[in-house]
Amino acid sequence: MKLNNIIIVGGGASGILAAIVARRNGANVTILERNSRIGKKILVTGNGRCNYTNSLTNVTDYNNQEFVAYGLGVFNPERTMSFFSQLGIVPKIENEGKTYPLSEQASSMIDVFLYELKHLGVNIITDALVNNIIKRNQRFTVFLADGSRYDADKVIIATGGKAMPKTGSDGVGYELASKLGHKVVPIFPALVKLKLECPYLKHLEGIKMPAKVELIHKNQVIQKEEGDILFGNYGISGPTILQISRKAMDLYHKNQKVYIKIILVSSLTKIEVKKRFMNAKEKPVDFSLIGLINKRYVSAILKEAKIFKQNTLVKDLSDNQLNALIDLLFDWRFLVKGSKSFNDAQVTAGGVSLEEINPETMESLKVSGLYFTGEVMDVDGRCGGYNLQWAWSSGYLAGLNSSKG
Ligand SMILES: Cc1cc2nc3c(=O)[nH]c(=O)nc-3n(C[C@H](O)[C@H](O)[C@H](O)COP(=O)(O)OP(=O)(O)OC[C@H]3O[C@@H](n4cnc5c(N)ncnc54)[C@H](O)[C@@H]3O)c2cc1C
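YS: structure for the whole thing
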Protein backbone atom coordinates (compact mmCIF):
# COMPACT_ATOMS: atom_id res chain seq x y z
CA MET A 1 0.00 0.00 0.00
CA LYS A 2 1.25 3.46 -0.92
CA LEU A 3 2.05 5.70 2.05
CA ASN A 4 0.05 8.86 2.42
CA ASN A 5 2.15 11.99 2.08
CA ILE A 6 0.76 14.55 4.44
CA ILE A 7 1.88 18.15 4.72
CA ILE A 8 1.01 20.02 7.87
CA VAL A 9 1.10 23.77 7.49
CA GLY A 10 2.08 25.14 10.90
CA GLY A 11 4.05 23.50 13.69
CA GLY A 12 1.97 24.78 16.59
CA ALA A 13 -0.05 22.85 19.16
CA SER A 14 -2.61 21.30 16.81
CA GLY A 15 -0.17 20.69 13.94
CA ILE A 16 2.31 18.87 16.16
CA LEU A 17 -0.37 16.63 17.64
CA ALA A 18 -1.75 15.86 14.18
CA ALA A 19 1.78 15.02 12.99
CA ILE A 20 2.38 12.51 15.80
CA VAL A 21 -0.97 10.80 15.27
CA ALA A 22 -0.66 10.64 11.46
CA ARG A 23 2.90 9.33 11.60
CA ARG A 24 2.00 6.70 14.20
CA ASN A 25 -0.74 5.67 11.81
CA GLY A 26 1.80 5.05 9.06
CA ALA A 27 1.78 8.25 6.98
CA ASN A 28 4.79 10.19 5.69
CA VAL A 29 4.49 13.49 7.48
CA THR A 30 6.14 16.85 6.86
CA ILE A 31 5.57 19.92 9.03
CA LEU A 32 6.17 23.27 7.33
CA GLU A 33 6.73 25.91 10.01
CA ARG A 34 7.45 29.55 9.22
CA ASN A 35 9.43 30.17 12.42
CA SER A 36 12.92 28.87 13.04
CA ARG A 37 11.45 26.44 15.57
CA ILE A 38 8.14 24.76 16.26
CA GLY A 39 5.70 25.49 19.09
CA LYS A 40 6.66 29.09 19.79
CA LYS A 41 3.22 29.99 21.12
CA ILE A 42 3.09 26.98 23.44
CA LEU A 43 6.03 28.53 25.32
CA VAL A 44 3.97 31.58 26.34
CA THR A 45 0.83 29.71 27.34
CA GLY A 46 -0.33 29.66 30.95
CA ASN A 47 2.23 32.35 31.82
CA GLY A 48 5.01 30.01 30.76
CA ARG A 49 3.51 27.04 32.62
CA CYS A 50 1.22 25.80 29.78
CA ASN A 51 -2.30 25.21 31.00
CA TYR A 52 -2.58 22.36 28.48
CA THR A 53 -6.06 21.13 29.31
CA ASN A 54 -8.91 21.49 31.74
CA SER A 55 -10.20 18.39 33.49
CA LEU A 56 -13.69 19.93 33.65
CA THR A 57 -13.94 20.67 29.91
CA ASN A 58 -17.48 20.85 28.62
CA VAL A 59 -18.88 21.83 25.24
CA THR A 60 -20.49 24.85 26.92
CA ASP A 61 -16.98 26.29 27.35
CA TYR A 62 -16.83 26.92 23.57
CA ASN A 63 -18.58 29.21 21.09
CA ASN A 64 -19.68 26.47 18.65
CA GLN A 65 -20.79 23.69 20.94
CA GLU A 66 -22.33 21.36 18.39
CA PHE A 67 -19.23 21.32 16.24
CA VAL A 68 -16.72 20.65 19.03
CA ALA A 69 -18.79 17.95 20.76
CA TYR A 70 -17.50 15.00 18.74
CA GLY A 71 -13.82 15.89 18.91
CA LEU A 72 -13.89 16.74 22.60
CA GLY A 73 -15.71 13.47 23.24
CA VAL A 74 -13.18 11.35 21.34
CA PHE A 75 -9.96 13.05 22.45
CA ASN A 76 -11.14 14.29 25.83
CA PRO A 77 -9.09 15.77 28.70
CA GLU A 78 -8.55 12.32 30.21
CA ARG A 79 -7.18 11.00 26.95
CA THR A 80 -5.14 14.17 26.54
CA MET A 81 -3.55 13.68 29.95
CA SER A 82 -2.79 10.05 29.21
CA PHE A 83 -1.37 10.95 25.76
CA PHE A 84 0.95 13.49 27.36
CA SER A 85 1.78 11.16 30.26
CA GLN A 86 3.06 8.65 27.71
CA LEU A 87 5.29 11.38 26.31
CA GLY A 88 6.57 12.16 29.81
CA ILE A 89 4.32 15.00 31.03
CA VAL A 90 2.91 14.37 34.52
CA PRO A 91 -0.35 16.34 34.95
CA LYS A 92 -0.85 18.75 37.82
CA ILE A 93 -4.52 19.64 38.21
CA GLU A 94 -5.13 22.96 39.94
CA ASN A 95 -8.23 24.97 40.84
CA GLU A 96 -11.18 24.88 38.44
CA GLY A 97 -9.64 21.91 36.60
CA LYS A 98 -6.73 23.85 35.08
CA THR A 99 -4.03 21.32 34.22
CA TYR A 100 -0.29 21.99 33.85
CA PRO A 101 2.85 19.86 33.51
CA LEU A 102 4.14 19.02 36.99
CA SER A 103 7.43 20.61 35.92
CA GLU A 104 5.47 23.90 35.58
CA GLN A 105 7.45 24.57 32.40
CA ALA A 106 5.79 25.04 29.02
CA SER A 107 9.17 24.19 27.52
CA SER A 108 8.69 20.60 28.78
CA MET A 109 5.92 20.26 26.20
CA ILE A 110 8.26 21.31 23.39
CA ASP A 111 11.00 19.01 24.66
CA VAL A 112 8.79 15.92 24.64
CA PHE A 113 7.26 16.90 21.29
CA LEU A 114 10.67 17.30 19.65
CA TYR A 115 11.80 13.94 21.02
CA GLU A 116 8.68 12.15 19.79
CA LEU A 117 8.66 13.80 16.35
CA LYS A 118 12.32 12.89 15.83
CA HIS A 119 11.81 9.38 17.17
CA LEU A 120 8.88 8.85 14.77
CA GLY A 121 10.71 10.35 11.80
CA VAL A 122 8.45 13.32 11.13
CA ASN A 123 10.10 15.68 8.69
CA ILE A 124 10.22 19.21 10.18
CA ILE A 125 11.07 22.06 7.83
CA THR A 126 11.44 25.41 9.57
CA ASP A 127 11.69 28.95 8.10
CA ALA A 128 9.06 27.73 5.66
CA LEU A 129 6.31 30.31 5.15
CA VAL A 130 3.48 28.78 3.12
CA ASN A 131 1.72 31.35 0.94
CA ASN A 132 -0.44 29.23 -1.34
CA ILE A 133 -1.93 25.77 -1.66
CA ILE A 134 -3.53 24.40 -4.79
CA LYS A 135 -5.16 21.09 -5.59
CA ARG A 136 -4.92 19.60 -9.08
CA ASN A 137 -5.53 16.02 -10.23
CA GLN A 138 -6.07 14.70 -6.69
CA ARG A 139 -2.70 16.11 -5.55
CA PHE A 140 -1.86 19.20 -3.55
CA THR A 141 1.01 21.55 -4.22
CA VAL A 142 2.09 23.71 -1.31
CA PHE A 143 4.02 26.87 -2.22
CA LEU A 144 6.48 28.63 0.05
CA ALA A 145 7.29 32.34 0.04
CA ASP A 146 10.89 31.53 -1.01
CA GLY A 147 9.61 29.97 -4.24
CA SER A 148 10.03 26.32 -3.27
CA ARG A 149 7.11 23.89 -3.44
CA TYR A 150 6.05 20.57 -1.95
CA ASP A 151 3.61 17.97 -3.25
CA ALA A 152 1.25 16.07 -0.97
CA ASP A 153 -1.74 13.72 -0.99
CA LYS A 154 -3.28 15.46 1.99
CA VAL A 155 -2.82 18.88 3.59
CA ILE A 156 -3.65 19.97 7.12
CA ILE A 157 -3.97 23.71 7.71
CA ALA A 158 -2.82 24.21 11.31
CA THR A 159 -1.76 27.83 11.08
CA GLY A 160 -3.55 29.11 14.20
CA GLY A 161 -5.54 32.32 14.41
CA LYS A 162 -4.26 35.86 14.70
CA ALA A 163 -3.75 36.27 18.44
CA MET A 164 -0.23 37.29 19.42
CA PRO A 165 0.97 37.36 15.80
CA LYS A 166 4.62 37.60 16.79
CA THR A 167 4.45 33.88 17.63
CA GLY A 168 3.80 33.14 13.94
CA SER A 169 0.00 32.98 13.74
CA ASP A 170 -0.66 36.23 11.92
CA GLY A 171 -3.80 35.28 10.01
CA VAL A 172 -2.19 33.92 6.82
CA GLY A 173 -4.16 30.71 7.37
CA TYR A 174 -7.40 32.51 6.59
CA GLU A 175 -6.02 33.59 3.21
CA LEU A 176 -4.89 30.04 2.45
CA ALA A 177 -8.35 28.73 3.31
CA SER A 178 -10.24 31.34 1.33
CA LYS A 179 -8.05 30.82 -1.75
CA LEU A 180 -9.14 27.17 -1.53
CA GLY A 181 -12.79 28.32 -1.58
CA HIS A 182 -13.55 28.35 2.16
CA LYS A 183 -15.69 30.98 3.86
CA VAL A 184 -14.10 32.83 6.77
CA VAL A 185 -16.28 34.18 9.58
CA PRO A 186 -15.06 37.73 10.48
CA ILE A 187 -12.43 37.58 13.20
CA PHE A 188 -11.82 39.69 16.31
CA PRO A 189 -9.54 39.43 19.35
CA ALA A 190 -10.99 37.42 22.25
CA LEU A 191 -9.73 36.70 25.77
CA VAL A 192 -8.49 40.24 25.71
CA LYS A 193 -8.33 43.40 27.83
CA LEU A 194 -11.33 45.70 27.42
CA LYS A 195 -11.36 49.43 26.78
CA LEU A 196 -13.89 51.31 28.89
CA GLU A 197 -15.58 54.66 28.75
CA CYS A 198 -14.62 56.10 32.11
CA PRO A 199 -13.29 59.57 32.93
CA TYR A 200 -11.57 58.26 36.08
CA LEU A 201 -9.19 55.73 34.59
CA LYS A 202 -6.22 57.84 35.66
CA HIS A 203 -7.35 57.48 39.29
CA LEU A 204 -8.11 53.79 38.94
CA GLU A 205 -5.01 52.74 36.97
CA GLY A 206 -3.03 50.05 38.76
CA ILE A 207 -5.76 48.94 41.19
CA LYS A 208 -5.83 45.16 41.35
CA MET A 209 -8.31 43.36 43.56
CA PRO A 210 -10.89 40.59 43.58
CA ALA A 211 -14.43 41.55 42.56
CA LYS A 212 -17.63 40.12 41.22
CA VAL A 213 -18.09 41.20 37.63
CA GLU A 214 -21.15 40.98 35.40
CA LEU A 215 -21.67 41.66 31.72
CA ILE A 216 -24.82 43.68 31.11
CA HIS A 217 -26.71 43.89 27.83
CA LYS A 218 -30.15 45.48 27.57
CA ASN A 219 -30.15 45.68 31.38
CA GLN A 220 -29.87 41.88 31.66
CA VAL A 221 -26.94 40.01 33.20
CA ILE A 222 -25.56 37.81 30.44
CA GLN A 223 -22.39 36.56 32.11
CA LYS A 224 -21.07 36.52 35.68
CA GLU A 225 -17.49 35.98 36.78
CA GLU A 226 -15.59 36.34 40.03
CA GLY A 227 -11.88 36.94 40.51
CA ASP A 228 -9.18 39.55 40.10
CA ILE A 229 -9.70 42.71 38.10
CA LEU A 230 -6.99 45.19 37.18
CA PHE A 231 -7.62 48.73 35.96
CA GLY A 232 -5.29 50.24 33.36
CA ASN A 233 -5.18 53.64 31.64
CA TYR A 234 -7.15 52.11 28.71
CA GLY A 235 -9.77 50.18 30.73
CA ILE A 236 -9.73 46.89 32.55
CA SER A 237 -8.11 43.43 32.51
CA GLY A 238 -7.68 40.41 34.76
CA PRO A 239 -8.92 36.81 34.50
CA THR A 240 -12.59 37.74 35.02
CA ILE A 241 -12.44 40.31 32.25
CA LEU A 242 -10.73 37.93 29.80
CA GLN A 243 -13.57 35.46 30.36
CA ILE A 244 -16.18 38.15 29.75
CA SER A 245 -14.40 39.76 26.80
CA ARG A 246 -15.54 37.22 24.20
CA LYS A 247 -19.25 37.87 24.64
CA ALA A 248 -18.68 41.57 25.25
CA MET A 249 -16.77 42.05 22.01
CA ASP A 250 -19.17 39.90 20.01
CA LEU A 251 -22.01 42.26 20.98
CA TYR A 252 -19.80 45.33 20.61
CA HIS A 253 -19.02 44.35 17.01
CA LYS A 254 -22.77 44.02 16.44
CA ASN A 255 -23.06 47.69 17.49
CA GLN A 256 -24.71 46.76 20.78
CA LYS A 257 -24.09 48.64 24.01
CA VAL A 258 -22.59 46.42 26.68
CA TYR A 259 -21.53 47.33 30.18
CA ILE A 260 -19.11 45.87 32.68
CA LYS A 261 -20.76 45.92 36.09
CA ILE A 262 -18.43 45.76 39.07
CA ILE A 263 -19.73 44.74 42.46
CA LEU A 264 -17.20 46.19 44.88
CA VAL A 265 -19.01 45.12 48.03
CA SER A 266 -20.44 41.65 47.75
CA SER A 267 -20.18 40.30 51.28
CA LEU A 268 -22.55 42.90 52.82
CA THR A 269 -26.14 43.84 52.01
CA LYS A 270 -27.20 47.36 51.03
CA ILE A 271 -28.97 47.67 54.38
CA GLU A 272 -25.77 46.81 56.24
CA VAL A 273 -23.80 49.34 54.21
CA LYS A 274 -26.43 52.02 54.86
CA LYS A 275 -26.23 51.27 58.59
CA ARG A 276 -22.47 51.75 58.39
CA PHE A 277 -22.96 55.22 56.91
CA MET A 278 -25.56 56.07 59.56
CA ASN A 279 -23.04 55.16 62.24
CA ALA A 280 -20.45 57.42 60.59
CA LYS A 281 -22.66 60.52 60.19
CA GLU A 282 -20.15 62.86 61.77
CA LYS A 283 -17.27 61.61 59.60
CA PRO A 284 -16.15 62.86 56.18
CA VAL A 285 -17.62 60.66 53.45
CA ASP A 286 -14.23 59.77 51.95
CA PHE A 287 -13.10 58.53 55.37
CA SER A 288 -16.30 56.55 55.84
CA LEU A 289 -15.33 54.38 52.86
CA ILE A 290 -11.95 53.40 54.32
CA GLY A 291 -11.91 49.74 55.28
CA LEU A 292 -14.84 49.03 52.98
CA ILE A 293 -13.29 49.45 49.54
CA ASN A 294 -9.77 49.92 48.21
CA LYS A 295 -8.72 53.48 49.11
CA ARG A 296 -7.82 54.17 45.50
CA TYR A 297 -11.42 53.79 44.38
CA VAL A 298 -12.64 56.51 46.75
CA SER A 299 -12.04 59.64 44.72
CA ALA A 300 -13.52 58.16 41.50
CA ILE A 301 -16.59 56.64 43.11
CA LEU A 302 -17.41 59.87 44.96
CA LYS A 303 -17.22 61.83 41.70
CA GLU A 304 -19.43 59.25 40.01
CA ALA A 305 -21.96 59.70 42.86
CA LYS A 306 -21.78 63.46 42.20
CA ILE A 307 -20.16 64.13 45.56
CA PHE A 308 -17.54 66.65 44.52
CA LYS A 309 -16.30 67.72 47.96
CA GLN A 310 -14.73 64.56 49.24
CA ASN A 311 -14.60 65.66 52.88
CA THR A 312 -18.34 66.43 53.06
CA LEU A 313 -19.66 64.98 56.28
CA VAL A 314 -21.93 61.98 55.75
CA LYS A 315 -24.75 63.83 57.55
CA ASP A 316 -24.52 66.68 55.00
CA LEU A 317 -25.00 64.42 51.95
CA SER A 318 -28.35 64.67 50.20
CA ASP A 319 -30.45 61.48 50.10
CA ASN A 320 -29.75 61.28 46.38
CA GLN A 321 -26.01 61.47 46.90
CA LEU A 322 -25.97 58.85 49.65
CA ASN A 323 -28.25 56.48 47.73
CA ALA A 324 -26.20 56.95 44.55
CA LEU A 325 -23.03 56.14 46.46
CA ILE A 326 -24.53 53.00 48.02
CA ASP A 327 -25.90 51.88 44.64
CA LEU A 328 -22.45 52.31 43.05
CA LEU A 329 -20.82 50.10 45.65
CA PHE A 330 -23.09 47.30 44.43
CA ASP A 331 -23.42 48.22 40.77
CA TRP A 332 -20.74 50.35 39.12
CA ARG A 333 -21.15 50.22 35.34
CA PHE A 334 -18.69 51.04 32.59
CA LEU A 335 -19.55 51.14 28.89
CA VAL A 336 -17.31 48.87 26.79
CA LYS A 337 -15.57 50.92 24.11
CA GLY A 338 -13.61 48.17 22.37
CA SER A 339 -10.68 45.95 23.22
CA LYS A 340 -6.92 45.80 22.97
CA SER A 341 -5.59 44.43 19.67
CA PHE A 342 -4.61 40.93 18.55
CA ASN A 343 -1.14 41.63 19.98
CA ASP A 344 -2.67 41.43 23.45
CA ALA A 345 -5.26 38.72 22.83
CA GLN A 346 -5.00 35.06 23.82
CA VAL A 347 -7.32 33.77 21.18
CA THR A 348 -9.13 34.63 17.94
CA ALA A 349 -12.91 34.62 17.65
CA GLY A 350 -14.17 33.80 14.15
CA GLY A 351 -12.19 31.95 11.49
CA VAL A 352 -12.76 29.29 8.84
CA SER A 353 -16.49 28.60 8.74
CA LEU A 354 -17.53 25.32 10.35
CA GLU A 355 -20.35 24.86 7.84
CA GLU A 356 -17.78 23.52 5.39
CA ILE A 357 -15.85 21.19 7.73
CA ASN A 358 -16.78 17.67 8.86
CA PRO A 359 -16.78 17.76 12.70
CA GLU A 360 -15.92 14.07 12.94
CA THR A 361 -12.84 14.15 10.69
CA MET A 362 -11.86 17.85 10.38
CA GLU A 363 -11.86 17.34 6.61
CA SER A 364 -13.03 20.09 4.31
CA LEU A 365 -16.44 19.47 2.76
CA LYS A 366 -15.30 21.52 -0.26
CA VAL A 367 -11.83 20.12 -0.98
CA SER A 368 -11.32 16.44 -0.22
CA GLY A 369 -7.99 15.68 1.41
CA LEU A 370 -7.81 19.12 3.03
CA TYR A 371 -8.09 19.30 6.83
CA PHE A 372 -8.19 22.04 9.45
CA THR A 373 -7.09 22.01 13.08
CA GLY A 374 -7.09 24.37 16.06
CA GLU A 375 -7.70 28.06 16.18
CA VAL A 376 -7.79 28.76 12.44
CA MET A 377 -11.35 27.45 12.57
CA ASP A 378 -14.28 29.39 14.00
CA VAL A 379 -13.79 27.78 17.42
CA ASP A 380 -12.72 29.51 20.59
CA GLY A 381 -13.04 28.57 24.21
CA ARG A 382 -12.86 30.11 27.63
CA CYS A 383 -9.56 30.87 29.33
CA GLY A 384 -8.32 27.89 31.38
CA GLY A 385 -6.90 25.19 29.10
CA TYR A 386 -9.86 24.92 26.75
CA ASN A 387 -8.20 26.35 23.65
CA LEU A 388 -5.24 23.99 23.79
CA GLN A 389 -7.68 21.14 24.45
CA TRP A 390 -9.41 22.04 21.20
CA ALA A 391 -6.03 22.14 19.43
CA TRP A 392 -5.27 18.60 20.67
CA SER A 393 -8.76 17.20 19.95
CA SER A 394 -8.96 18.63 16.44
CA GLY A 395 -5.32 17.74 15.77
CA TYR A 396 -6.03 14.16 16.78
CA LEU A 397 -9.02 13.86 14.42
CA ALA A 398 -7.19 15.45 11.48
CA GLY A 399 -4.04 13.39 12.04
CA LEU A 400 -6.01 10.15 12.31
CA ASN A 401 -8.33 10.71 9.37
CA SER A 402 -5.81 12.19 6.96
CA SER A 403 -3.59 9.14 7.45
CA LYS A 404 -6.34 6.65 6.66
CA GLY A 405 -5.99 5.08 3.20
C1 LIG B 1 -0.34 34.63 25.62
C2 LIG B 1 -1.19 33.41 25.35
C3 LIG B 1 -1.41 32.51 26.38
C4 LIG B 1 -2.22 31.38 26.14
N1 LIG B 1 -2.39 30.49 27.17
C5 LIG B 1 -3.17 29.40 26.97
C6 LIG B 1 -3.31 28.42 27.98
O1 LIG B 1 -2.66 28.48 29.04
N2 LIG B 1 -4.16 27.37 27.75
C7 LIG B 1 -4.85 27.24 26.57
O2 LIG B 1 -5.60 26.29 26.42
N3 LIG B 1 -4.67 28.12 25.56
C8 LIG B 1 -3.84 29.18 25.73
N4 LIG B 1 -3.65 30.07 24.69
C9 LIG B 1 -4.30 29.79 23.38
C10 LIG B 1 -3.55 28.65 22.65
O3 LIG B 1 -2.16 28.89 22.71
C11 LIG B 1 -3.97 28.56 21.19
O4 LIG B 1 -5.37 28.45 21.11
C12 LIG B 1 -3.34 27.35 20.52
O5 LIG B 1 -1.94 27.46 20.52
C13 LIG B 1 -3.83 27.20 19.08
O6 LIG B 1 -3.16 26.15 18.48
P1 LIG B 1 -3.00 26.10 16.89
O7 LIG B 1 -2.25 24.87 16.57
O8 LIG B 1 -4.31 26.30 16.25
O9 LIG B 1 -2.14 27.40 16.54
P2 LIG B 1 -0.70 27.88 17.03
O10 LIG B 1 -0.31 27.19 18.27
O11 LIG B 1 -0.77 29.35 16.99
O12 LIG B 1 0.27 27.36 15.87
C14 LIG B 1 0.21 27.82 14.56
C15 LIG B 1 1.57 27.62 13.93
O13 LIG B 1 1.48 27.81 12.53
C16 LIG B 1 2.58 28.57 12.09
N5 LIG B 1 2.17 29.25 10.86
C17 LIG B 1 1.20 30.19 10.72
N6 LIG B 1 1.06 30.53 9.43
C18 LIG B 1 1.96 29.78 8.73
C19 LIG B 1 2.28 29.70 7.36
N7 LIG B 1 1.63 30.42 6.44
N8 LIG B 1 3.27 28.85 6.99
C20 LIG B 1 3.93 28.08 7.90
N9 LIG B 1 3.66 28.14 9.23
C21 LIG B 1 2.67 28.97 9.64
C22 LIG B 1 2.86 29.50 13.24
O14 LIG B 1 4.18 30.01 13.20
C23 LIG B 1 2.61 28.62 14.44
O15 LIG B 1 3.76 27.92 14.84
C24 LIG B 1 -2.82 31.17 24.88
C25 LIG B 1 -2.55 32.08 23.84
C26 LIG B 1 -1.75 33.18 24.06
C27 LIG B 1 -1.47 34.13 22.93
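YS: worth flagging: The chain has a mean pLDDT of 97.
IM: good catch. Also The radius of gyration is 25 Å.
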